[in-house]
Design brief:
The protein is mainly beta. It has a domain at about 120-230: Sandwich (Gamma-B Crystallin, domain 1), CATH 2.60.20. The chain contains two helices and 17 strands. Strands 1, 2, 3, 4, 5 and 6 form a six-stranded antiparallel sheet that branches. A six-stranded mixed sheet has the order 12-13-9-7-8-17. It is globular, with a radius of gyration of 18 Å. The two termini are about 25 Å apart. Bound molecules: 2-acetamido-2-deoxy-beta-D-glucopyranose (NAG) (2 copies).
């Protein structure tokens, strides 16, 4: 219990620190959440994480979003792994109308808190970008309490990143390039993301260190030729990930590139904490 309280406090510390940063440093990232699909209707503009949309009076009521950046919308509070629905639009000055009002209860962005296209990584404890996260913009020779606990990953910016199964950049490695580019108004956001480690080509909960650059010949997605995806997985186009992916019984992920479709998640729950390296 003591450890849990400690994690909660460090979560709050990180968030308030980001509030300061967000206003000190001009940035392009935003998400405007509308409760109707009327473009002239009222909206709330988010610049930062919101673990509980009741705080903005927007719990279960988002119908349309306009945004710059990668934003995740979770159907449970605190980005919880109990979320049964996840939306992850990636846009630069783009909008998205949802057919039905979303059951979104928390939201956060991925990528650098400082500048939109800065090189950055987010490592999540849950699959599908759920749960607590370890994030940073520099090499990490260990992931501290996230050691052997990472289940999904996002990178942003123009640099590739290499993920290692050993401490201090040893062991098995996979390099991930920011192969997707979202653009608008002459602004580009480079990014890539995998909702499970198996899709990246490493076992779940195996990452122990992270380095900037591509430090291995084992480059995603070509490494997929050797990867065991298991018989419940259908991966249509390994490079673009445009097609539907089915992952076992508990998860359905459609359109992994746009990250825009509903995801049904597994069960484990843990919430709250964020650590920046
Ligand atoms: C984009 O950049 C080009 C060349 O710099 C410029 O001509 C054009 O007006 C810009 N477009 C926008 C929407 O800013
Ligand atoms: C979210 O996490 C915070 C901090 O850990 C906790 O105090 C709060 O009760 C959680 N909210 C919900 C709705 O679970």
């Amino acid at each position: 219990m003591g450890a849990y309280v400690h994690l909660c406090l460090s979560f709050l510390a990180v968030i308030s620190n980001y509030n300061v940063q967000a206003f000190d440093i001009p940035d392009l990232r935003y998400l405007k959440a509308y409760i109707s699909d009327d473009p002239d209707g009222p909206y709330h503009e988010f610049l930062d994480y919101s673990p509980d949309l009741r705080d903005q009076g927007l719990d279960n009521s988002i119908k349309r979003v306009c945004l710059t950046g990668i934003w995740f919308l979770y159907s449970d509070y605190n980005y919880s792994e109990e979320s049964t629905e996840l939306w992850g639009p990636v846009r630069v000055n783009g909008c998205l109308d949802f057919e039905l009002t979303l059951s979104t209860s928390s939201l956060r962005y991925a990528g650098s808190p400082y500048h939109l296209d800065d090189s950055y990584y987010n490592l999540y404890e849950g699959i599908n970008y759920c749960g607590r996260e370890f994030r940073g913009n520099t090499n990490a020779d260990s992931l501290l309490e996230f050691d052997l606990r990472v289940s999904s990953v996002i990178i942003c910016g123009q640099s590739p990143w290499t993920f290692f199964t050993g401490l201090q950049f040893t062991g098995e490695a996979v390099c991930l390039y920011p192969a997707n580019i979202a653009t608008g108004n002459n602004i580009s956001l480079h990014w890539n993301g995998l909702p499970t480690m198996e899709l990246l080509g490493l076992p779940d909960n195996s990452i122990r260190s992270v380095a900037k650059g591509c430090l291995t010949d084992n480059v995603y997605p070509n490494n997929h030729l050797q990867v065991e995806l298991g018989d419940a997985v259908e991966l249509g186009d390994a490079v673009e990930l445009r097609d539907a992916v089915k992952l076992g019984d508990a998860v359905e992920l459609e359109d992994a590139v746009e990250l825009e479709n509903a995801v049904k998640l597994g069960d484990a729950v843990e919430i709250g904490d964020a650590v920046e390296h």
